[in-house]
Design goal:
The complex is a heterodimer. Chain A has one domain: MetI-like fold, CATH 1.10.3720. Helices cover about 65% and strands about 0% of the residues of chain A. Chain A is built from 11 helices and no strands. By secondary structure, chain B is mainly alpha-helical. The longest helix of chain B has about 40 residues. Classes of the chains: A mainly alpha, B mainly alpha. Chains A and B meet through helix 3, helix 4, helix 8, helix 9 and helix 11 of A and helix 1, helix 5, helix 6, helix 9 and helix 10 of B.
């Protein structure tokens, strides 16, 4: 095992561990053990319970899986959209490219969190927790593409002027055929963008959740669990309240430590 | 003459961007699946027929062209729309909070930059960058702003300026360090250092001139970083600024206020981007 890939293996191990915990018989992130609210670590609840008596370890594990899966899916979507838009702008006529880049700049000028809050607050009042989770990550994916598209556009312009593309054009390759040849060459550019987006989306979801605008209860999320820290009365009863924050920081550190050329 | 034409072109582009941002954000809000939802829909006393009528009425009064025209008109009149929650012009809600947010942003940016520049200067002059300098920045970037603010509150030390300055410093440190390292490797600077010219003179005369344009662009990015941290910081530290107003509007589905604040932030980012891009434009002209 190469040491550079250690963060990836640690993340995989964490995800496997979390899946195992969530899949254990009797483990439920929504079950409320009303006789054991806000308890510390015990055999029954290894990381204690929250103020509603829900097992903290199960909730943290489910939040980890949900957040990683959501961020990975959103990142894949946003990278694919950026690849398509960036490549289109690079190989389209100048006027189209100018317009596409202007739209990119308009998106880049909008601060993420404000836009997220705006779209998130305009959701239906009766949206289910699963819907709110899906919509949160979809909105993240919809807003994350412009920076990546700009990078793809620059890379695409470089390729457009390369000798082999000129040769391909001279040989009669056009439109979709050309793009099919170009996309694999943009992979070294797309992978880092994908890897940069994953921790950014995890942080955005946590920040939104901490403001009460993230994934709805009872689905567990990092942001929702950060809200526990707002109640200082709880903090004196058990130190396990800090467990989700500590794990979130560890996950983010691991995500940021993944070598981009891996 | 060339510089003037570039400036005019840049202004025209900024104006086009602002217009696009206004149209885009209005479109996003209007097309959001719950835009037409009304709190009365949740009231069990209303029958299904009444709810359907409410929805139809909302759809009629919120057609997209009409909404865009109303938005543009309200900005031209300077009141930025009417708050759904308070029933007053949004301008009256934003104006008293602008000074609070402006002060917070300015102090955070100054402290953040001072921290980042000092650390980057020291780190860039060392032979090995070392984990000692990179690790704190990486760790700080891995903590969500809301968590950092909450932990500061729990520890009873550090305020909103401190949290935002740490975030700005952590983000800018890596860029500054890389920039300075590249600048130090310039042949004339290597020669000047070998000749024993004092560090202060080198920084003032050579390094600052070499990285000035990049610093201006980075300043624009710092503003974006600060704005993205504004809402959690103002909400958690109970600072009565624009970020707190936006959060309150989001919680109460007061979309005119949220739209106005978002547009204001976009204006600030666009203007700072334009100013940040100017030094390099002037150099080229």
């Amino acid at each position: 095992m190469r040491i550079r890939l250690l963060p990836v293996w640690l993340l995989v191990a964490l995800a496997l561990g979390a899946s195992l915990i969530v899949a254990l018989p009797g483990a439920s992130y929504a079950y409320q053990d009303r006789e054991h609210t806000l308890t510390g670590a015990s055999l029954q609840h290894p990381a204690g319970t929250d103020e509603l008596g829900r097992d903290r370890l199960v909730r943290v594990s489910a939040a980890l899986l949900l957040s990683l899966a959501g961020a990975l899916a959103a990142s894949a979507l946003t990278t694919a959209a950026a690849a398509a838009i960036g490549a289109l702008a690079a190989f389209a006529p100048r006027g189209v490219a100018w317009l596409v880049m202007l739209v990119c700049d308009a998106f880049l000028a909008l601060p993420w969190l404000f836009l997220l809050m705006m779209v998130r607050s305009a959701l239906p009042l009766q949206a289910s927790p699963a819907h709110s989770a899906a919509i949160t990550f979809l909105v993240l994916a919809a807003l994350g593409w412009p920076a990546c598209a700009r990078a793809v556009y620059s890379g695409g312009l470089g390729l457009k002027r390369s000798d082999w593309i000129m040769q391909a054009r001279a040989s009669g390759l056009r439109g979709a055929q050309l793009i099919r040849q170009v996309l694999p060459n943009l992979r070294p550019l797309l992978l880092p963008q994908f890897l940069v987006c994953v921790p950014a989306f995890v942080i955005a979801e946590a920040n939104l959740g901490a403001l009460g605008l993230g994934i709805g209860e009872p689905l567990p999320s990092w942001g929702g669990m950060l809200l526990e820290l707002d109640n200082s009365a709880l903090l004196f009863r058990t130190q396990w309240v800090y467990f989700p924050v500590a794990l979130l920081i560890l996950v983010l550190l691991l995500l940021e430590a993944i070598p981009v050329e891996a | 003459m060339k510089a003037l034409s570039r400036l005019l072109r840049s202004l025209a582009r900024t104006l086009a961007l602002v217009l696009l941002v206004m149209i885009g954000s209005t479109l996003l809000v209007r097309l959001a699946p719950g835009y037409l939802s009304d709190a009365r829909e949740m009231d069990a006393r209303y029958s299904n027929t009444v709810r359907e009528e409410l929805a139809q009425e909302a759809a009629r009064s919120h057609s997209l062209p009409r909404m865009l025209a109303r938005e543009a008109n309200s900005w031209l009149h300077g009141d930025a729309g009417i708050s759904r929650q308070f029933g007053v012009p949004v301008r009256e809600l934003i104006r008293p909070r602008l000074a609070v947010t402006g002060g917070l942003l300015l102090r955070s940016l100054l402290l953040g930059w001072a921290l980042a520049l000092t650390a980057a200067l020291v780190a860039s002059t060392r032979r090995k960058s070392g984990i000692v300098w990179q690790a704190p920045a990486t760790l700080l970037l891995a903590i969500p702003t809301a968590a950092m603010a909450t932990l500061c509150l729990l520890a009873g030390s550090g305020g909103p300026v401190f949290v935002m300055a740490l975030l700005i410093a952590a983000r800018d440190f890596k860029f500054l360090c890389r920039m300075l390292r590249q600048a130090w490797l310039e042949p004339h600077l290597l020669q000047a250092r070998a000749q024993g010219i004092r560090m202060r003179r080198l920084l003032a005369v050579h390094v600052a001139a070499a990285i000035g344009a990049q610093l201006a662009a980075l300043a624009g990015l710092s503003l974006v970083t600060a704005l993205s941290a504004l809402v959690p910081v103002e909400v958690l530290f109970d600072v009565p600024g624009v970020g707190q107003l936006a959060w309150n509007a989001a919680m109460n589905r007061d979309l005119p206020v949220l739209l106005a604040v978002t547009l204001l932030m976009a204006l600030a980012v666009t203007a700072s981007g334009m100013l940040g891009g100017q030094p390099s434009e002037w150099e080229r002209a």
